[in-house]
């Protein structure tokens, strides 16, 4: 145990004193915050651009409808030919030209309307103009039918069934997705940690091999102790790095937002900001109600339970994968030879994230979600996505959770045993590029 | 006295390859024991078994009479042939770490390190990183980390590689001193002249088998060919070899004469020595008369070749 402690200490110090590690640790939050601030700033500038659209209205309709918008203004023109209008739009440097011909009734006018721009028009501008025309067209047709807009609104109102769980809690669409997202955050964290720090473990093993110190070390300690100490020391360094990242990034972010007077919401509003959108458009419920329901649901996520199980899945999952990384590091002589072995490790992780997101989103307790949350190489990630629904009734059945953890522990013992064997043989093999067949043979030495 | 290390019928296979086949050895306490053999003979595997890096499929290893167990690593110092240090670590810190892994307390390790750093005159390297050191300097550090915990059994695999002659001599003296202080030493090398110089016992391993073991002087005795090299100035050159050859056969191919001094090799049974010496002293001036002792190198090559012929 004393030796294990010594090894952990050395590995930890070697890692955190490493120059590139220090730079990574302190530079990344600055880069990250810088990026966010830059995006927010650019978005702000982008929105300040004013687009002016010329409206050549030859019809008797549309007198008051084209109102200025943030970023968009309209200039009305009359009594000139379309050619002249095009020319002056171009020469004035305006964004586009909307041509409404005089075709009599409004529906005919709208049908024959044309929007000219220099290049393909921006979706935002186009949608805005379409909306104006559509609104008028609809009002016109309603009038023809003799129906009041109020009646129409009642007619077109969607229907949403009332939903509740048997326990009597209100539920709604988007809740599954939202919960899976929260759990997915935990799962994603596990995956990133495995990939980054598993790689560190591997490189540190390769370093010991290439510097030829390995035989000296293992004449004092058991190879398994060395491997375990390496994994633990490296992960402690990783935890340190993560903590520094989280703390400094949030501090910097707050400071940046205060001093640059940027609205953080600007980032969330953008369509295409990853991870934010799918959960929010909840049809049928007014936006406020949805938000409050989501907040309610978020508060209902059993955080204590989540964190408890996160620790279990994190530790076991990380140990399984990092011991495989250690075995790979031991089997090869340099990093370029690791490629063929790395891919099969990344594969289940990727599968867990993607399959997890797709299947857990739509049905957290469907057969795929259940299967992947029990299969040990994917369970740390997928089970974390299912857990926000709670355990027991309405959530993950207890037997599934028990089976999943049981299998994970069994796999952990098995994999660490096998990895330790490969490691033990591999660290003393120099100058060979091993094949899978050879690795298999090593298991029997 | 009990042998410090005894290896009994040890076998070890890697897949289909048998690295050691029923090897038994006894390393006497307070001796320097040369472990010799061609490349790939199984020496490294044997050394790794002693260090508990590898484990035998069959057979036992005893250290000081006890079956080898994990706690014994603190009593063994091992300088492997493939050796190195952590490049990014400071010299002092690294030596402390390695010593603590061998079971020394931090304070003890510190004290021993100061002693050795002073002894080998490397005191001011403490805070330098290994990558800044020359190869010879790194080798010195490695030697120190091997002996720091005052092990009963020291195993040196090619200890002199990487040293210039001055430092090699320094290390050789240290090895002898350690032996005199009571350590037992296993010494594996291909440099036969250092075996000749240092080892009291040798074992020869060839193709997974031990083919020779014993006290170096006895082995040499067994391998002696009863040949003597003579330098002699006959008073009458014209007598030629005939008179002498009546007493003992002269190896004519090795004969040459230079300014009246003859230099030749003669095969001589012990019983005939007196007569032959009388002949030489009466008929000339004898300047040297020495038994031709087989070198370790000769023994090595001869034994291995004989083994190959059998196989």
UniProtKB/TrEMBL annotation, chain A:
Residue spans crossing the bilayer: 21-42, 180-201, 242-260, 301-321, 341-361, 368-386, 398-420
InterPro entries xrefs: ABC-2_transporter_component, ABC2_TM
Keyword Transmembrane helix annotated: yes
Domain of life where this protein originates: Bacteria
UniProt entry keywords in alphabetical sequence: Cell membrane, Membrane, Transmembrane, Transmembrane helix
UniProt-annotated location(s): Cell membrane
Domain ABC-2 type transporter transmembrane: 19-420
Membrane topology qualifier: Multi-pass membrane protein
Main subcellular location: membrane
Record's protein name: ABC transporter permease
Organism taxonomic ancestry: Bacteria, Pseudomonadati, Bacteroidota, Flavobacteriia, Flavobacteriales
From TrEMBL, chain B:
Pfam families from the UniProt entry: ABC_tran (PF00005), DrrA1-3_C (PF13732)
InterPro entries, per the entry: AAA+_ATPase, ABC_transporter-like_ATP-bd, ABC_transporter-like_CS, ABC_transporter_ATP-binding, DrrA1/2-like_C, P-loop_NTPase
Any one GO MF annotation of this record: ATP binding
Key words of the record: ATP-binding, Nodulation, Nucleotide-binding, Transport
Domain annotation ABC transporter: ranges: 5-232
Top-level taxon: Bacteria
PANTHER family in UniProt: ABC TRANSPORTER ATP-BINDING PROTEIN (PTHR42711), ABC TRANSPORTER ATP-BINDING PROTEIN NATA (PTHR42711:SF5)
Family of the protein in this entry: Belongs to the ABC transporter superfamily.
Protein name, as recorded: ATP-binding cassette domain-containing protein
Species in which this protein is naturally found: Robiginitalea aurantiaca
Taxonomic classification: Bacteria, Pseudomonadati, Bacteroidota, Flavobacteriia, Flavobacteriales
């Amino acid at each position: 145990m004393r030796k294990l402690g010594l090894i952990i200490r050395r590995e930890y110090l070697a890692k955190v004193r490493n120059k590139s590690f220090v730079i990574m640790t302190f530079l990344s939050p600055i880069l990250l915050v810088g990026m966010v601030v830059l995006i927010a700033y650019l978005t702000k500038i982008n929105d300040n651009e004013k687009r002016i659209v010329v409206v050549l209205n030859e019809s008797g309709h549309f007198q008051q409808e084209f109102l200025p918008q943030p970023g968009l203004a309209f200039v009305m023109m009359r009594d000139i030919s379309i050619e002249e209008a095009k020319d002056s739009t171009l020469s004035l440097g305006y964004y586009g030209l909307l041509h409404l011909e005089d075709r009599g009734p409004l529906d005919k006018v709208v049908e024959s309307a044309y929007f000219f721009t220099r290049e393909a028009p921006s979706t935002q501008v186009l949608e805005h103009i379409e909306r104006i025309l559509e609104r008028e067209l609809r009002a016109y047709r309603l009038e023809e039918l003799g129906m009041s807009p109020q009646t129409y609104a009642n007619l077109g109102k969607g229907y949403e069934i009332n939903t509740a769980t048997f326990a009597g809690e209100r539920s709604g669409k988007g809740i599954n997705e939202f919960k899976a997202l929260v759990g997915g955050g935990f799962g994603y964290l596990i995956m990133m940690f495995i990939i980054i720090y598993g790689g560190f473990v591997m490189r540190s093993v390769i370093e010991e091999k290439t510097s030829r110190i390995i035989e000296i070390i293992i004449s004092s300690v058991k190879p398994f102790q060395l491997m375990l100490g390496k994994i633990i020391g490296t992960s402690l360094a990783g935890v340190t790095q993560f903590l520094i990242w989280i703390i400094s990034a949030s501090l910097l972010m707050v400071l940046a937002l205060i001093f640059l007077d940027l609205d953080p919401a600007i980032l969330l509003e953008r369509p295409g900001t990853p991870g934010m959108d799918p959960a929010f458009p909840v049809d049928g419920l007014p936006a406020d109600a949805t938000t409050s329901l989501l907040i309610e649901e978020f508060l209902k996520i059993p955080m204590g339970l989540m964190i408890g199980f996160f620790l279990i899945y994190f530790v076991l999952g990380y140990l399984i994968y990092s011991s495989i990384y250690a075995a790979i590091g031991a089997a090869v002589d340099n990093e370029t030879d690791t490629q063929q072995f790395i891919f099969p490790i990344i594969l289940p992780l990727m599968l867990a994230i993607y399959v997890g997101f797709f299947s857990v989103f739509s049905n957290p307790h469907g057969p795929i979600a259940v299967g992947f949350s029990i299969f040990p190489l994917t369970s740390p990630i997928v089970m974390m996505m299912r857990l926000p629904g709670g355990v027991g009734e309405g959530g993950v059945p207890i037997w599934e959770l028990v089976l999943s953890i049981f299998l994970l522990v069994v796999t952990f013992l098995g994999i660490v045993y096998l990895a330790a064997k490969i490691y033990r043989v591999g660290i003393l093999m120099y100058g060979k590029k091993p094949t899978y067949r050879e690795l298999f043979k090593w298991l029997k030495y | 006295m009990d042998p410090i290390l005894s290896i009994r019928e040890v076998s070890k296979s890697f897949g289909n390859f048998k690295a050691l086949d029923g090897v038994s050895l006894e390393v006497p306490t307070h001796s320097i024991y040369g472990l010799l053999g061609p490349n790939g003979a199984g020496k490294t595997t044997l050394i790794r078994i002693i260090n508990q890096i590898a484990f035998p499929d069959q057979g036992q290893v005893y250290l000081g009479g006890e079956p080898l167990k994990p706690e014994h690593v603190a009593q063994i110092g091992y300088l492997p042939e493939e050796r190195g240090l952590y490049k990014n670590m400071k010299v002092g810190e690294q030596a402390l770490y390695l010593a603590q892994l061998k079971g020394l307390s931090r304070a003890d390790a510190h004290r021993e390190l100061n002693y050795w750093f002073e002894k080998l005159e490397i005191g001011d390297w403490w805070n330098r990183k290994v990558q800044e050191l020359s190869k010879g300097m790194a080798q010195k550090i490695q030697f120190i980390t091997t002996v720091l915990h005052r092990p009963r059994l020291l195993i040196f695999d090619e200890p002199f590689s990487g040293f210039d002659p001055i430092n090699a001599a320094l290390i050789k003296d240290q090895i002898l001193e350690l032996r005199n202080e009571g350590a037992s030493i296993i010494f594996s090398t291909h440099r036969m002249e250092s075996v000749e110089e240092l080892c009291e016992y040798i074992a020869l391993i060839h193709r997974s088998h031990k083919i020779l073991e014993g006290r170096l002087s006895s082995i040499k005795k067994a391998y002696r060919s009863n040949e003597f090299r003579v330098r002699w100035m006959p008073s009458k050159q014209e007598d030629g070899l005939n008179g002498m050859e009546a007493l003992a056969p002269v190896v004519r191919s090795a004969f040459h004469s230079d300014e009246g001094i003859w230099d030749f090799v003669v095969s001589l049974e012990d019983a005939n020595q007196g007569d032959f010496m009388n002949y030489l002293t009466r008929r000339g001036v004898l300047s040297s008369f020495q038994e031709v002792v087989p070198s370790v190198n000769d023994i090595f090559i001869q034994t291995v070749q004989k083994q190959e012929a059998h196989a």
